[in-house]
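A quick aside before the break. I want you to see a complete sequence-to-structure record at least once, exactly as it would be stored in a machine-readable document. Don't worry about memorizing anything.
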Amino acid sequence: MVLVTLIFNMKILLKKTTVLERESPLHNKIVDILIEDGTIIDISENLDVSAELIVSKENLHVSLGWFDSSVCFGEPGFEERETIQNGLKTASHSGFTDICLQPDTLPKIDNSSILSFLKNRTSEYPCKIHPIACFTIKGNGTKMTEFFDLHKYGAIAFGDFLTPIKNPNLLKSSLLYVQTFDGLIISTPRDPYINLNGLVNEGVKSTQLGLSSIPSIAEKIQIQRDLSILEYTGGKLHIPYISSFESIEVIRSAKKNGLNISTSVPIANLIFNDDVLDGFNSNYKLYPPIRNKEDQKELKEAVLDGTIDIVTSHHQPLNSELKEVDFNSAEYGTISLEAMFGSLNKIFSIEKVIDLLTKGRSIFSIKEPKIEIGEKACLTFFDPSKRDVFTTDKIVSTSKNCAFLDIEIIGKVYGCINDNKIFISKCE
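That is the input. The structure line, written in tokens, reads:
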């Protein structure tokens, strides 16, 4: 595999590409798209023009650039897991033009200096970082960060990643305060006391394997608490990493009652159930835990009916010292950017897959791109039909902790264009 990146001020022509964008009159039409200096200047069925770069691929499809609401890299502090530069290369290679970066760093993203560091990390790759700042200083759950200052420096939301908000008064105060600038609070649904020392989903499988468990009620009661506070305060709340049927029912009811909430589910929870734990493979030690077949089925249904708004890669690079150990000692997490598209495309229609990969920006107040003449090109191009097996040679990430190894994937990413940059992957 050859990875080609170009920073361009040139004409680029996408030839005979099928547009997948339900909201566009171009949906399902085969067109040529001409881009100059990063802007779409023409769209037609057959453009006879010269261009410095012509993208002509087998079964070429194009959509709006893909978006991921939860990604970790490591830098600053954990560069051995992943650097920003290689992380953006991985995301671009996987078709993503925008990612929300979690504050899983050292130091944490809890002050304007760290945000400035991230903003000033220029990259040759088209994928852009949108940082999520910590909810509390150092992510320790004690004192809220300076939300407004962080917002001014580019923070798109506030949350402590996998650390839950233990103090309900902090959540109440934060939801009231961020309304002054239309800010977004993220609250991980994880009761820290019921959840204590659990490793996998509570059920038949955890009993058979003798592993300490995480009951789904630990997720449900945290959501119920948070929604009660939201109902009292107003504001916007994002609840990530939904994993259980019980939680879905609570969220569905809250949405019917008009609460301003959004939700996400990790791709791993849609693809796997706890049957994969039989081999004690630490790559399947994830948070939220992979639950049973019933939960897996209900999660898919909740995605289809809109109860769950976003599917996220929940990409978490971890070096071998943290994952290649016994199951009890291993850290939670898997890399998943590279397998995201091919996995989603196995379980949903291609139209639904593209909907899921392109929605979510509005939740985080990120500008939505358009496929229109005069608009900046923010596009992902791909083949939705190519079948393959996801193997280690397809991993671009520095860390190799991957739950998706050796599974069938459907679809191939060719590249993406964004921010006047293009990334193309070519087979030798």
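Two observations worth writing down. The chain has a mean pLDDT of 95. The first strand starts at residue 2 and ends at 7. We'll return to this after the break.
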